[in-house]
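Structure ticket #2291
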Amino acid sequence: MAEAKWYVVHTYSGYENKVKANIEKTIENNKHLAEQILEVRVPLEEVVEMKNGVRKTVQKKLFPGYVLLNMEMNDDTWYVVRNTRGVTGFVGPGSKPIPLTDAEMKPLGIKSSNISVDFAEGDSVSVVAGIWKDTVGVVQKMDFGKQTATINVELFGRETPVEIDFAEMRKL
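Resolution: structure written out below.
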């Protein structure tokens, strides 16, 4: 069984959510695909808009016209995705899809490798890398999807929550 990687699919403009729903429906109808196409995502970002003098937070598509897929690339999955209504093709040279690298996935908040940690909420940790190096804090919240933990650090005499990657911390 091949390793699942993240691929980018180009869609008709405005069809991103329809493509996501169509692929998920196909996976639901064909159980063998559920083990090969693991996740379909339309990346969104929160944007503050001013309308009629009122601030409003809305969700906008980060990449209009594109959908992200975490899947094993083989002839079956390629055929199913490529022939989904609204899909114009995979991103890559010719008809050969190119998976996204870890560096390309990190700004999207998606980590491909899971890090196992020996600390939990309430444990004291020491930051061993990054801008908060040599800082000690207590884990308040853990986000396993983003592979980060929120710890409280003292900043200007106050407790301040800071989000840090699991790889940059160790248990005291």
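Closing remark: The mean pLDDT is 85.
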